[in-house]
Design a protein that fits this description.
This protein is mostly helical and 216 residues long. It contains 15 helices and no strands. α5 packs parallel to α7 and α11 runs parallel beside α13. The protein starts with a helix and ends in a 16-residue tail after the last helix.
Length: 216
């Protein structure tokens, strides 16, 4: 079994697999022999070892690849490979990686599956430019995940206030201390559900009358 195990590694890493800048240390993988998938996924999630992450990123099990993809210690040169993975789960976990590359976040932001886009929209490490692309996403759940992002700039909040679905706007109000300029933009929409949420959060007086021009 051990000979077969190392034969597989030799074929995999030496047989024209030029996407890896270097092969892993074979002695590291001897420790993995006989471990269950559950053990491997836990290791893929937590390890800081580059050699192990290179192995996990190419593992045949999508759960192992997924946890490697989300690991913030993932070597940057592996991100493009995982962004092309056939498994949507792997791409989704990569989208949640707090050290995701800007180019990879941009690529995943146009993935056809909303399940991929919404994790990118909620990732606090993603750039303002990419986040703005989700403001009017065709899938309202993506818009809502954007509104729940813990690292939104005032510029992004303003665009959500202007252009996003009401459900996303309400999530924005519930998830953030909304700046005054954003509150004014929200009031200008004159949507009763939005105004009521502002009142509930204390951003508007309970007796405010939006039909009274003196309130602006």
């Amino acid at each position: 079994m051990k000979r077969a195990f190392f034969s597989f590694l030799a074929i995999f890493f030496l047989g024209g697999c030029n996407i890896l800048p270097q092969g892993p240390d074979e002695s590291v993988f001897a420790e993995l022999e006989g471990k269950s998938i559950q053990e491997l996924t836990r290791m893929a999630k937590d390890t800081k070892d580059e050699n192990l992450l290179r192995y996990f990123a190419h593992h045949q099990n999508e759960g192992v690849r997924s946890d490697a993809a989300k690991n913030p210690n993932l070597p940057e040169d592996l991100q493009p490979k995982l962004a092309e993975d056939d498994s949507w789960l792997v791409r989704q976990y990569l989208g949640a990686n707090r050290n995701i590359l800007p180019s990879i976040a941009a690529k995943l932001s146009i993935d056809l599956l909303p399940e991929i886009r919404w994790v990118v929209a909620k990732n606090p490490s993603v750039s303002e430019e990419v986040l703005l692309s989700f403001v009017e996403d065709e899938n309202t759940e993506v818009q809502k995940k954007l509104a729940q992002n813990t690292n939104l700039s005032t510029a992004v909040m303003l665009e959500i206030a202007k252009r996003s679905d009401i459900g996303a706007v309400i999530d924005l109000i519930r998830s953030h201390t909304v700046p005054p300029e954003v509150i004014e933009e929200l009031r200008s929409r004159k949507e009763e559900s939005i105004l009521e949420e502002l009142r509930q959060q204390g951003d508007l007086p309970q007796n405010s009358d939006e039909n009274d021009s003196s309130s602006f």
